Structure to design on (81 residues):
């Protein structure tokens, strides 16, 4: 009864679909206080990507490709474990 009055007053329609609670996840990209210590500025994703691109590529002995990793931290090697 009260809900109906609120809907009329606000002009808002309640969604018909009832969402499962398990579909709701915690937000990502949260940096709490203290994560940027020693005066370091937190770099944006764009800056991180630019830095990664500027790094010299090397041939990985495991996957035989010119990439930004070597055999020690190759994805293929890590997938085998
Ligand atoms: Zn590799």
């Amino acid at each position: 009864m009260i809900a109906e009055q609120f809907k009329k007053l606000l002009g808002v329609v309640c969604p018909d679909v009832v969402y499962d609670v398990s579909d709701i996840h915690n937000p990502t990209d949260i940096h709490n206080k203290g994560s940027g210590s020693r005066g370091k500025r937190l770099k944006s994703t764009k800056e991180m990507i630019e830095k990664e691109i500027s790094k010299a590529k090397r041939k990985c002995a495991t996957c035989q490709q010119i990439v930004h990793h070597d055999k020690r931290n190759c994805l293929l090697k890590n997938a085998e474990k």
